[in-house]
Amino acid sequence: MHDLLSFDDAYTDGDIDTNRSDGPTLGAIVDQRYSRRQTMVGGVSAMTLAAFGTTLLSGCGSDAEDNTPPTVTAGQNAATTSGKLVSMTATATDAGGSIAGTVWTQVSGPTVTLTNAGTLNASFIAPAVATATPLVFRMTATDNFGATATADSTITVAPATLDFTAVPKSLADVVAVPAGYTVTVLYRLGDPINAATGAYANDGTDSTFSARAGDHHDGMSYFGLLTGASTPDAANSARGLLVMNHENISAAYLHPTGQTLVNNARPEAEALKEIECHGVSVIEVTRGATGGWSYVQNSTLNRRITPNTPMQFNGPLRGSALIRTRYSTDGTMGRGTINNCANGLMPWNTYTTCEENWAGYFRRDTTDNAARTAKDVTSLNRYGITVTTNRTGNNRWSTVTPSDSSSTLYSRWNINVQAGTAADGTGDFRNEANQFGWVVEIDPYLPTSVPRKRTALGRMNHEGCWPSVPVAGRKLAFYMGDDAQNEYLYKFVSNTPWAAADATATDRLAIGDKYLDSGTLYVARFDATGAGVWLPLRFNENGLNASNATYPFADQADVLANVRLAGDSLGATKMDRPEWTAVNPATGEMYLTLTNNSSRTLANTDAANPRYYNDPKGTAAQRGNPNGHIIRLREDGDTSEATSFRWDIYVFGAGSDLNPTNINLSGLDATNDLSSPDGLWFSRSTNPTGQVNPLLWIQTDDGAFTDQTNCMMLAALPGTVGDGAARTIVNLAATDTGTRSQSTFVGKAPGGSLRRFLVGPKECEITGVDSTPDGRALFVNIQHPGEGGTGAAPTSAWPASQAGTTGTSRPRSATIVITKNDGGLVGL
C-alpha cells in the first residue's frame, strides 16, 4: 500500500487546507478499505437431500486489520447425475461495509446455463456426460469499495440414471406416475378449439366436431412458437403447437345411446360426427407463470384436419390412374386422412401423420370381384379389402343418404365399381381405397396450407415415419413399420442430401417436396447371422415389372401403391406387427416395436421373431408371440444411406412370472415387465434427456396382460446394438409334446435401466408422446379409456376420475402433461 504523494512545486490551485474538522482524509479511507479482511461464505446444495445431503460450503476469515488481501475458503464438494436440477446457495458478508454484487460463473466442465446467476442462489441442469465429469463454479462477491472475494465449488456429474421409483402395476381408473411428479389433463375429446364453440356436454348430444378435439388421441409432436407470433421458435418451451392424431372413435360414447340405424342406414348427423372425430388436431398450448399448462381455445392457429379436408397428392402417384376418382378425375387431389396412428417430426418443422387401419372403412360387395380385373382383385385382397356378404365398412358411412343430394361425402366409402360409369374410375369411387395408406405431411404453422400425401414413401398400414439424424451432406432416411401381422419394415432414402439451412426455411412444405417426393424405398430382410439387408423397391429391378407372376407391376407408381406385394416378391422378413419406429439421436440406431403376433407358429419362427409360446390369460390360451418385443438396428458405416445393417432384440415383452429360459429372455421383474410395446420415442436432443445416452419411452397397447395391469409407459436407458449375445431358445408346441430350437440375438438385460413410469386408467391405450425442448414437460396421450362400456354403463370415468370425481361420467380420450414438482427434467 502506497501513501498519497504531494510535491511542493506542483500546481496548487486550491491546494490550501481550510477544513480543520475530524472527518477522515482520503488517505485514511483508502487505508481502511484495504486493511480489513472481507469474509464470504459460499455453498452448494441440491434441491433434495438425496442428491447432496446438506449445505456444502462454508467460509472462514478474520476481521483483523492486517492489511492482507481477503481470502475465502470453499467447503465440501458434491456429486450428482446427468439431468438433475442442481441448486447452489452462497452467503456473502463484509465486516466493514455491504456487498454491492454477487455472481456465479462457470470455471470449467461442459457448459451449462445458470439460472439466477446474479444472485446468491443459482441453479442449473446437470449436463449429459458419458463418464463422471467435474464442473467448477465460482461465486464472486464485490463490496461497495470494489473489493472482491471468491469461493469455488466442484460438482461432479455422473452419467444419467432413472431416478424414480417404479410405478406398480395397477387396475385403477387413474393415471399413476412416480412420487415427485404431477399429472395435468390438457386437451380432451370434445374440447372446443375456437371461441364460438360451446363447452362439451359429454352426453352424446354434442356436434360440430370440426371445431372440437377429436377422439382416440394418438401420435403427437410439439412445435415451439415465437412469443407473440405464429412463426417457429424451436427452443421455446413455454408456448407451442401440439399436433396430434385422432385414430378412431369410441362410438358408444359419442351418441346418446350409441350408433343407430334407420331403415338399415346410418343417420347423417351421427355419421358426420364420427367422421369429424377422426383426423388431426393442431392446438396452441402455453405454460403459465407458475408452470401450469393449458390450451388456448381461441388461438388463430388452432385447426382440425378430418377425413373431409382437401389433400394434395405428391410424388410418383400424382396424376396416376390408380388414384383417379369422381372427386379428382386427374388424380392430383383427395379428401382427408383417416385412422392416423403414429407420426413423424420432420427436421424442417413439419408434422407427418400416418394412415394405419384405413382398409376397414370401405364397402365392397361380393359382386365387385367380377367387375374388376384379376390384378385389381389381387391388390385389394393383399390389403385386406376382401368382399363379404355384409361388408358395409366400419361404421357403415356409405349407407347415409345425404341432405345435399350432390354430396359425395358418404358415397365415397363405397368402392364398388358402379355399372355404366367410366372404365378409368373417374365416374365412381372404385379407386378411393388407393387414396389411403400414405404418409401425410402437415405444416402446423400455416392453417391455410393444404396437407400433402407423400406417395414416394409407399402405401401400407403406416406406423410412424421417423427421420434419421440429420447430417449435412448426407441423405435423410425415414423408417416406417406396416402394422399388421407378418408385415414388413421399410426405409425411404431421399435423393437429396440434407442441407442444414432447410431446418429454418419458411416454405416448409416445399422443403418436404425436396426430401419426400423422390428417393428409394427399401424393405428389410433380417438374416439369421444378425446382419440385415435393405432391398430396393424399384420398378424393373428384382422382378418388379410386368412379368411378375403374382402381380404384374406397370410402373413405379404401381410398385409404391402395392409395396406389400413388392415386399413379398423380394423375400422381406415377416415381422410380428411392426409398429412405431424411433431413432436414437446420439447413436442413430433405429428401434422398432413388434407389438404381438397371434399367427406366429412353432414352424415359422425366425431369428428376428424367435418366440412361440403360450401365455395363458386365466384359462384362455394366448399362443404365438402375445407379448411382443422391440428390435433395433444399426446401419453399416453409421450412415442413413447404408443398404445393410446389424440388429439385435433390445427387450422381449413378458410377465415376470414367465419362463426366463425361453420366454422372459430379458429378465424382466415386477418393476419393468410389460406386454405389447407399441408407442416408441426418444427424448429430444435439445436437453440432457436426449443426449449421450438418451431416454427411450415405451408405451403399450395390450390385451394379453390386462388381467394384471392397465396399459403403461416405461422409461429406458437402452444401450447399443450388440451389447448382449447370441442365444438359442426352445419353443414349445401348442400340444406341449413338440419343441423347436430357434437362435436369435438378445441385447443386454435391461435391469434397472428399464422402469415403469406410468400406468393408465381402465381399458385405455397409452400412445403418443413428446416433450418441450427443455425436457421439463412431457405430453402423453391416453386413448379410449373405458372402451368396453356404453353411455348408460361406462367402464371408466377418466379423466373425471383423475380429480377424484366419482359417478358415471363418460370417459374421454385426452392429452396429459407430466411435470416434475421440483422443476427438473422428466425421467431423470
TrEMBL record:
Residues 798-811 have a biased composition (Polar residues). PANTHER family: DUF839 DOMAIN-CONTAINING PROTEIN, SLR8030 PROTEIN. InterPro entries: PhoX. It comes from the Bacteria. Residues 604-629, 785-811 are annotated as: Disordered. It comes from Sphingomonas prati. This is Phosphatase.
